[in-house]
From TrEMBL:
It holds the Pfam family HNH_4. GO terms for molecular function: endonuclease activity. Residues 243-283 form the HNH nuclease domain. Keywords: Endonuclease, Hydrolase, Nuclease. This is HNH endonuclease. InterPro entries: HNH_nuc. It comes from the Bacteria.
Length: 369
């Protein structure tokens, strides 16, 4: 993916920002710079950028359980903040940034200091051909003085002042990023996806996990289960609550924050309150999979018994059943309950185990939650 040409700017060096990336910091630092530029800022403090980095990494770490790198300091800092504050994985970005601005937590501040030691300086290494070897192994103050002598950089530094040190975006680069923001964002996302996929080889849907979770579009599935409720009473699998058309919510058995899809075989009707309690936890397999299989087998039987149900199923399937192989294994006509449950387990269990290996926690419903 190529960046737009600009006659007076060294675009070839900009395009090499992520050539040597063993940690995630460069992506988040540059993304934070782009975000602040698009807000109209030309001077930005280290702390502003680090707060932005933490907020951007928040969902990847707490909601999606992505690995950002070996012994990654940004990932560790996000986990520390989540442990101390108990903020939700789905917390709004504005609330996260607001907390970071107000916090006087000494451990948090110390960890921010660690994040600023390398990436603000080394990001622009492709622009600085004379900076080699020991030239980087000096104090931050001396490093700033040395870098500020380099020509044609994206940004320069004001006087060193810890987290309050300010970078100053050069006018031509400020204009270039504004004018080409869509392409630059796409280029950054491409490189970030490639990096994260290498660090998380068994995790699906990396491209959907760069940003906060969005509300799922499950109206067709909800309408399908409401039709089934009109035929026979159905209980949710967690609290054994009898479902009604007024209080029905569609749950992802293996959390969406891992699977990043809305496939029908992973969806189960429940109540809004139980779905909220479950959040992005993994339901205990031995407790809940047999109940899920029973509920899904009821749907399967009704689908092959009633034409109206089969029509509703087909409408769902066009959007929520995207594998012909899975469809043939689970939904072909003539399966017994045992055969159906076995086929469903063969599809779900590997995904479930992979999510468990990635750190998604076991969950058993309690009506006291």
């Amino acid at each position: 993916m190529h960046l737009p040409y600009a006659e007076d700017l060294e675009i070839r060096y900009l395009s090499r920002l992520f050539d040597n990336t063993s940690e995630c910091y460069k992506f988040f630092w540059f993304q934070a710079i782009v975000s602040k530029i698009l807000e109209g800022k030309r001077r930005i403090s280290f702390e502003e950028l680090i707060d932005e980095m933490i907020a951007d990494a928040w969902y990847m770490v707490t909601e999606y359980h992505l690995n950002l790198g070996p012994k990654d300091n940004l990932e560790a800092l996000v986990n520390y903040i989540q442990t101390v504050t108990q903020m939700r994985p789905s917390e709004k970005k504005s609330n996260i940034v607001s907390f970071l601005k107000r916090s006087t937590d000494k451990e948090l501040i110390n960890r921010k200091q660690i994040l600023k030691r390398n990436v603000p300086y080394r990001l622009q290494a492709p622009f600085m051909k004379t900076m080699k070897g020991t030239a980087w192994k000096v104090s931050e103050r001396d490093l700033i003085e040395r870098i500020n002598q380099e020509p044609n950089l994206l940004y320069y530094f004001d006087c060193f002042n810890g987290l309050q040190t300010t970078i100053r975006i050069e006018d031509d680069w400020f204009t270039y990023i504004h004018e080409n923001q869509a392409i630059i964002k796409g280029w950054l996302q491409y490189h970030m996806i490639c990096y994260l996929q290498k660090r998380n080889p068994s995790v699906p849907g990396i491209a959907d996990k760069l940003y906060p979770p969005q509300e799922r579009k499950l109206e067709k599935v909800k309408k399908y289960w409401k039709l089934l409720l009109s035929i026979r009473p159905v209980q949710d699998i967690y609290g054994q609550v009898q479902l009604t058309g007024r209080d029905i919510s569609i749950d992802h058995f293996v959390p969406w924050s891992y699977v990043a899809h809305d496939e029908l075989w992973n969806l189960s009707p429940t109540t809004r309150s139980i779905n909220s309690s479950k959040s992005n936890y993994l339901p205990d397999w031995d407790t809940y999979f047999p109940k899920l299989a029973g509920q899904e087998f009821f749907s399967y039987k009704m689908m092959w018994k009633y034409d109206t149900v089969r029509d509703a199923f087909e409408k769902c399937a066009r959007e929520h059943l995207n594998s012909d192989d899975v469809r043939q294994r689970i939904y072909r006509q003539g399966l017994s309950c045992v055969e159906f449950s076995k086929a469903l387990a063969e599809v779900i269990q590997p995904v479930y185990q992979s999510a468990k290996n990635c750190g998604f926690k076991n969950w058993i419903y309690s009506c006291e939650i």
